[in-house]
Amino acid sequence: MSAIWKPSVTVAAIIERDQQFFMIEEETIDGVRINQPAGHLDPDESLQQAVIRETLEETAHDFTPTALIGTYLSRFISPKTGEEVTYLRFAFTGELGAAHDRALDTGILRTVWMSYDEIAAAQDRHRSPLVMQCIDDYLQGKRAPLSLLFTHPSALGNLEPQK
Fold this sequence. Notes:
Layout: E1 8-14, E2 16-17, E3 20-28, E4 31-35, E5 38-40, H1 47-59, E6 61-77, E7 84-99, E8 108-115, H2 116-121, H3 130-139
Parallel strand pairs: 1-7
Antiparallel strand pairs: 1-5, 2-3, 3-4, 3-8, 6-7
């Protein structure tokens, strides 16, 4: 029996205010990169819980998702290590909330508000080709209701033995 291939599931927050996008700069093995607040889905959490947690960890701000912008599949091959990873990204838009007095996640250098043109001009520093695609889809008005996303309680660690 062959192994089942599984993509790495990630979430991202697309946050816009006054034609500026809330971005992060992060240190990676491939150098400093620009990204939306984003990260991996952890065990026992829904996609919405993951984007709320990741935004807090990476920006020290609350985030309330209001819509799903899209789902995205991409493959990344590190130019330095040759490691290959396929990502399945769920991008959300929503409301940026209160700031908290807390350290940013390991590797996050800073948060920064950037215009579309500034983000487009820095494509060589994007963490992923999905950074621009998610912003373009957001600006095109792509939105899906959060009700399309269902998380069964078993995925939240509430698994009871079947009888």
